[in-house]
Request: fold
Amino acid sequence: MLISVERLTELVETTLRQGTGNADGAAKVARHLVEANLMGHDSHGVGVSPLYMESVKAGELHPDANAEVVQEKGPFLQVDGNQGFGQVVARQAMEMAIEKAKQSHIAVLSLRNCFHIGRIGAWGTMAAEAGFISIHYVNVLSPNSLVAPFGGREPRFTTNPYCTAIPATDRHPMFLLDMATSTIAQGKTRVAYNKGVEVPENSLIDHEGNPTNDPAVMFEEPKGALRTMGQHKGFGMALICDILGGSLSGGGAYLPDRVVESRVVNNMLAILIDPNVFGGADEFFGDIDNYTDWVKSSPPAPGVDAVMFPGEPERKSRADREANGIPVDDNTWEQLLASARDVGITEDEIERIISA
Reply:
């Protein structure tokens, strides 16, 4: 089904507000989740909101928490998210980092102990819109390790995202590379499982280490694992994200004794750089423009419309979904409705929201 941005946002926001009593936090989280859907990243969209509510009930997500500065050393900043809504505390931490970068041409943010911070591209976009290049290394501490190391058949860490954002130029939009270090994100297996469809080739292995396209291996026993992107190269990148995002922040890399049921913790290292630090921003952006033109001038391969830069697929998705609605599969829709009912939203109110 296709759900309008307004209806989907109101349903999720109302559920979060009713379940937490935090109206401001609910609005910020709902907007962030719906934006992920708009960008085509359904894995990080509204489908995770029922998990948030379960974690609030379990006492593992603290909806009223704010980001807290642990240490400041010049342009370096260590921040604790206090298990708050990731979309709230990560934004607070990024605002601090942006102010640091304005003062020093660079900021290094080490952020720990946030509940799921959602689509990392949102934080890259935030920095780029403020005029800064940003690089993000993120790790995840969740109840189950999901990704097998290269050459292994049992999972040992999670999808550990990486992101780089570069501000828009006069001729080209923002460059935004936002990716899991696994071949696909766990949320994409959830979407495929709910839809009853297969995942792409080389995304998963079963419990014996054999390649499979069946997303059920991530949800039904005996469980398999996600594979790292690019084989050994993605494996190395995943380790770097765990070490720089987790170990450096004090939140820790993925180890079983750090995992708690109903808790999904993100830790992040974010590096913000002023592109004009050496006084050469005009040359920098001019070079990007020329380079972009050159790369995109490559004739498209058969079946491809055009070469696209990172960020372009998301912009195309947003334009389409804002105009035509956001696709939500039946299982995810039922989970959203069940979550709304669980926090006491009446059938009449649900009907009012979804029929508006």
